[in-house]
Design goal:
Length: about 775
């Protein structure tokens, strides 16, 4: 028998008898903690999608029914399945289907990014995407499509049985499924009575349900009024979770049933139900803040800071002695809206500074804001609908707010009479080249005007001075080269954003705006001069300043002005050579939020000596980016930023340690207690982040990329990065050899974190 075996071995080739199973490159997406009643359709959808005969699968159903949740669970299942799929791509499409945006999202997932790729035409990008995906077994998940998506225009290869590629999408319209070639789509339906009650019970909580013997029966009536819609069950359930009297529950039943009888179709079943959560908001000002969120396009992340500034200028938030008080009140309102499930907070550590409104909730907000029984046109929202010109308005005189965000409007003409208009959103109309002076003549009450991201807009008319009530003006990311003299006549202007205006030649005369409290000047072509600094000093009410500094003399003058230092919120220090600033000494700056130091030659960053442990120098500093600073050897000054959440250190060839053991010993501070994200890139001399394990209670991600080969040990032990029993950390790396060389604190640490290591390649 052995001879037979030997003979067979001599005739065969057995160097490789099996391949390791391929696991898809997929990003796990967050899910809400309570999901009820989807197991059956999840298994059905998964089995249907993975069937060899299925190339494209469509999921349809009404808004808020759980289509996105179902697609998310399918996405996440690929993360744990070895089925031969190589890459899973998630794209949110929404109503304003724009090929270039979809190509951008797909490109980012497969490594196509940077200036060169962004400048390519849609056709060239389609070729790149097609060439890449045609060699991969991919799954494309398209969420929330409203019309046929031309896959070939994007560059998506047609899925075939031979390739094993799959496409799945969600939509509200069954007709869209047919237009996509799916004639047997799966309907995602509302929950049955049992599952709906189960979900509602979990949202309300047993404590509330047991607070009175009659509440469970009344609660069943409220749950039935939600008609099995998961979104309504979640929103109303969370609203009722704190209601512990029968009177409150009876009132809920009365309100829900009364409104539901007044409207047909979808609005009859959804909007009145969702409106009950709106009706329960604590004040009219909070309700106004909520309705204001509907001015943004659907599926848009709304920056919290910007939104609060709008609210303040609109008068929804009472004036405080300082802007800080008003901003804090704004965050309280945002928290209330998030807890009421009327807004959703950013889904991951990169967008916690944003909120989002579910599109069904947005429809409800628009329905309320339009005052359906009286003046339907007091609020006009035509955001992201592809407009080429201003919409026709029956009666401009009743209009209070107008949002034309993200359209293709080229020119704005006419002289509409708008005595009640307070907010005008015209941002992100990238074809806009001209606004006539007459347009602003009859808008005496406008307080918010946003013209940001109009990259082709090169000028403003002098008649902007007619906006006598204007408090908020955003011109950021436009191509305006000169500010009109009329702008300097806006005596009530409180907030002026000029960031990233790369064509702007001067802001001379800015001290003519006596009410100015917020001035944003980051990323301008013009340099900060001594004369401009003198003008800034004359702005007596200034509270928030963002600025870029590129000369040592301007830096010295800035840091010597205690009043301007107190105003600094974001600062960019660039291109200072070693001869001009050998040691950068920073004073305490209590309101500083973000710092960028790039292309500088200083040898050290230090803190003024009056720093105490009880009063840190930078209590609000959350984001720091150090890039191209080749003289620095450590960043020990970060010890005095206790609330730092994001730290990026790139291309600094002499950095040896982030925190120096020798320097830190004198301070006695444990760093990085709030750090969420650490990105290290091209640091050839880096040996240490910290010399001993740190707790890192908030750390989500460490990313070590490109030439960090001397960093052999991470400051982790088996107890690091654990919050409430959850293990949070993901370690991304760009070099397989680096992972193999990592020295772990002990075996328990290795076993704990090695499975969290993921190879991620970046093309920068």
């Amino acid at each position: 028998m052995l001879n037979v075996v030997q003979d067979l071995k001599s005739k065969g080739f057995f160097e490789e008898v099996a391949h390791a199973a391929v696991r898809a490159m997929a990003e796990e997406r967050p899910l809400q903690p309570t999901i009820v009643g989807q197991e059956t359709i999840l298994e059905k959808a998964w089995n249907h999608l993975m069937d060899d005969g299925t190339k494209i699968m469509g999921l349809y159903g009404m808004g808020g029914v759980g289509k996105t949740t179902l697609l998310t669970r399918i996405n996440n299942r690929f993360c744990d399945t070895d089925d031969g799929v190589e890459i899973v791509i998630w794209v949110v499409v929404s109503g304003d289907l724009q090929i270039h945006k979809i190509q951008k999202e797909i490109g980012e997932k497969i490594g196509f990014k940077g200036v060169e790729w962004n400048q390519k035409s849609e056709n060239q990008k389609a070729v790149d995407i097609h060439n890449f995906l045609s060699k991969k077994r991919f799954v494309l998940l398209l969420d929330d499509i409203w019309k046929r998506v031309e896959l070939t225009e994007i560059g998506i290869p047609n899925p075939t049985s031979e390739s094993g590629c799959k496409i799945a999408f969600t939509t509200r319209c069954q007709s869209v499924c047919a237009s996509m070639g799916v004639h047997d789509p799966m309907e995602v339906r509302c929950l049955g009575t049992v599952d709906a009650w189960d979900l509602f019970k979990k949202k309300v909580g047993e404590i509330t349900l047991r607070s009175h013997p009659d509440i469970p029966e009344i609660a069943r009536k409220v749950a039935r009024a939600c008609r099995g819609l998961p979104l309504a069950l979640n929103v109303i359930g969370e609203t009722m979770a704190c209601k512990k009297t029968t009177q409150e529950w009876d009132h809920a039943v009365d309100v829900l049933t009364t409104y539901a009888a007044n409207f047909g179709a979808v609005k009859e079943k959804i909007l009145p139900i969702l409106k009950y959560s709106y009706d329960n908001l604590e004040s009219e000002s909070v309700k106004s803040c909520f309705k204001y969120c509907s001015l943004f396009p659907e599926d848009t992340l709304i920056e919290k800071e910007r939104l609060i500034d709008y609210w303040i200028c609109e008068g929804f938030i009472d004036e405080y002695e300082s802007k800080e008080g008003a901003v804090n009140k704004g965050h309280v309102i945002l928290g209330n809206l998030v807890r009421a499930s009327l807004l959703v907070e950013g889904e991951n550590f990169n967008n916690k500074s944003y909120v989002k409104m579910h599109d069904v909730v947005r429809e409800m907000a628009l329905w309320i804001a339009s005052d359906i029984r009286t003046q339907k046109e007091n609020c006009i929202v035509r955001a992201g609908v592809g407009l080429n010109e201003l919409p026709k308005v029956k009666d401009w005189k009743v209009l209070r707010r107008m949002s034309l965000v993200n359209n293709r409007i080229k020119e704005i003409n006419g002289s509409p009479e708008c005595p009640k208009l307070t907010t005008l959103f015209l941002q992100d109309n990238r074809l806009l080249v001209n606004i006539s002076g007459e347009f602003f003549r009859c808008m005496p009450r406008v307080v918010v005007l946003d013209l940001s991201w109009n990259v082709n807009l090169k000028g403003l008319p002098e008649q902007i001075s007619e906006l006598v009530s204007l408090r908020y003006l955003d011109l950021s990311d436009s191509s305006i080269g000169r500010l009109p003299v009329g702008l300097l006549k806006l005596k009530k202007l409180v907030h002026l954003n000029l960031e990233s205006m790369l064509c702007l030649e001067s802001v001379s005369g800015i001290d003519h705006l006596p009410s100015l409290k917020t001035l944003r000047l980051l990323n301008l072509r013009m340099w900060l001069t001594i004369s401009l600094l003198e003008e800034l000093k004359r702005l007596e009410n200034l509270e928030v300043l963002t600025i870029e500094i590129t000369s040592s003399s301007a830096l010295e003058q800035m840091l010597c002005s205690h009043r301007l230092v107190r105003c600094l919120q974001k600062v960019s220090i660039k291109f200072l050579d070693e001869e001009s600033v050998r040691i950068l000494t920073l004073p305490s700056i209590s309101d500083l939020r973000e710092v960028f130091i790039g292309g500088c030659g200083m040898r050290e960053i230090s803190i003024e000596r009056n720093t105490s442990l009880t009063s840190p120098s930078f209590p609000n500093l959350s984001k720091v980016l150090i890039a191209g600073c080749n003289g620095l050897k450590d960043l020990t000054w970060l010890l005095f930023a206790p609330n730092l959440t994001h730290l990026n250190v790139w291309n600094s060839r002499q950095v040896e340690e982030l925190i120096s053991q020798e320097k830190a010993a004198r301070a006695g501070i444990v760093p990085f207690r709030k750090l969420e994200y650490l990105h290290l890139w091209d640091l050839p001399e880096l040996k240490s982040i910290y010399w001993s394990p740190l707790p890192f209670p908030c750390l989500n991600r460490i990313n070590v990329q490109n030439k960090c080969r001397k960093l052999r040990k991470l400051p982790l032990d088996s107890q690091s990065c654990i919050v409430a029993g959850e293990e949070l950390l993901v370690i991304q790396y760009g070099d397989e050899e680096w992972k193999e060389r990592v020295e772990w604190e002990d075996e328990a640490t290795r076993l704990r974190f090695l499975p969290s290591c993921k190879l991620v390649l970046y093309n920068r």
